Amino acid sequence: MKFRLSKKKIILLSIVLVIMILAVTFSLLYKHNLSFRKFVDNYIFKKNITENTLPKISTDNTYSFAYNDYIVTLDKNELVFYKKSAEKVSSLDVKISKPIIQTCGKYLCIAEKDGSKFYLINNQNILWQKDVDGKISNLSINKNGYVAVSISDTTYKTLCKVYKEDGTELFTKYLSKSSIIDSCISNDNKFLAIADVNTSGISVQSNIQIISIEKALSNSPDSIQYNYTAPLDNFIVNIEYCNGNNLVCLYDNHIDIIKNNAVSEVTNFDNTNILFADMNDKLIQIEKRNTGLLSYDFELQILNIPDLNRTTYSLDKEPKSVEVFGNIIAINFGTEALFINNSGWLIKDYTAYQEIQAITISNNIAGIIFKDKVEFLPL
Asked: Is 33 helix (H, G, I), strand (E, B) or coil?
């Protein structure tokens, strides 16, 4: 018995097939054809935003940053919270003038740079505050409110204190010969990673330690789960847990991933012209590529961790700075800024009439910082 499709079904299948082909073609053109993408963003998706069309606040020698749903300013020991409409909603008194700031989800940790005081904030409330002996040089926080504080100028070269979300001090890791450059706590609260550098010799020696928090709590001698010493003169810049317990390590000349106590190199800057690199649960890179005699193009590369599957986004000029947070990538060209998500799709294209000084982002809001104001861009 022969099976035959009805004419109606054939037409329906043909329509579905055409729609799929058009969708794939549209996606490819949108991601890789700059002229087509600009036309679609401007006239169809309406993603273009210009200066002076957004809510804003005037600023004068204030420090501004994005946190959760807010833009927050710090001036004269006062944190002021503004919602997306630029309306002031609350304020907190803090003894901070030169801040170190780390945010993750609903938590904000703020400390005095080279000072002794720091605070943990949830939403608009101070959960707890601490004073430490020595000078605070670095902070890190995970989504559960666990905090790691790096401290110098003690009897040790540097040390790192770890706290629970309720302010309970868990343990201290002491380093006698090296300085802590960065630290991070895994989102399952199981591991503390520390990146430190020893500069006492002729060459720079970078080191990565991964510490079991559970074993450190019991003072176990084998609390260090993994210890990696980088080749000489490879300076560690930043570390972050991405997509689980995959530790991405950014050096001044390459990028590594530590997974299951094994190191693999992802990018070598000697072989590629990487202008910017950072992490936001994925590895974010911008590469400058030679396309001919004195001609270049620029490509945003979004790498999934740890399989390194890559999404790209073509850029038509060289960025001045890049900020990443959560699912958002902000690319500052000076008088234009692109906001792109981790899937490689443009969220907003912002155009300014003057130089953009800086950009601060969370998953929900961006602050476009000028010399005398901050404009609020919902994301």
From this structure: coil
Q: What are phi and psi of 165, to 5 degrees?
A: -65, -20
Place of tokens 């790691």: 148
Residue 247 shares a structural domain with residue 112 = yes
Q: State how far the Cα of 62 lies from the Cα of 39, in Å rounded to an integer.
A: 38
Compute the distance between CA of residue 256 and CA of residue 259 in angstroms, rounded to an integer. Answer: 10
Give backbone dihedrals phi and psi of 23, rounded to 5 degrees, phi first: -65, -45
| Residue 28, helix vs strand vs coil | helix
- Does residue 252 share a domain with residue 106? yes
For the cut 60, the answer to whether the pLDDT of residue 2 exceeds it is no
Q: Is the domain of 101 the same as that of 238?
A: yes
Predicted structure pTM score: 0.88
Based on the structure, what is the number of domains in the chain?
Answer: 2
pLDDT the model gives residue 160? 97
Residues 270, 272, 273, CA angle at the centre, nearest 5°? Answer: 100
Q: Tell which residue, 251, 246, 263, 347, has the closest CA to residue 303.
A: 246
Q: Which of 242, 271, 300 is the last residue of a domain?
A: 271
Query: Are β-strands 373-378 and 56-58 bridged in parallel, bridged antiparallel, or unpaired?
Result: antiparallel
**Contact 270/241 with Cβ under 8 angstroms?**
no
Mean pLDDT across the stretch 42-56? 88
**Cα-Cα end-to-end distance for the chain:** 58
Put the strands of the sheet holding 246-251 in their side by side order: 236-242, 246-251, 254-259, 262-268
| Residues 110 and 67 reside in one and the same domain | no
Q: pLDDT tens digits for 255-275?
A: 999 999 999 999 999 888 999
Q: What is the CATH number of the domain that holds 169?
A: 2.120.10.30
Residue 333 is part of which domain span? 40-71+273-379
- Confidence check: pLDDT of 31 > 80: no
Higher pLDDT: 18 or 283? It is 283
Residue 302: CB atoms within 10 A of its CB come to 21
104 falls within a domain: yes
Specify the pLDDT at position 18.
83
Q: Is residue 350 a part of any domain in this protein?
A: yes
